[in-house]
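ARCHIVE CARD
Drawer: 12
Card no.: 0347
Subject: one protein chain, sequence and derived structure
Cross-reference: see card 0346
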Amino acid sequence: MIEGREDVETVVRQRLRMMAYPHGKADTRVAEAARCAGYDFAFTASPTCVEPMTDALMIGRIEVRALPTPEFARIIAATLAGG
């Protein structure tokens, strides 16, 4: 989370505020490490809705891949329905 960050920030000329966890895997321990490293937001690969109490360092996301539109719509609907 820290190694190489300064180099990237130099190139983009701004502080990196968010990240996506490698392979989308994270737990509270990993989120705390991201918090300590100074990130404001981080994304998991867990397809969950963002709610008011969602930890900003454990934001779920839906993986976008080549899917037929109806299948992608089904995944979005299931996520919004909570399962």
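Annotation on reverse: The longest strand covers residues 18-20. The two ends are 30 Å apart (CA to CA).
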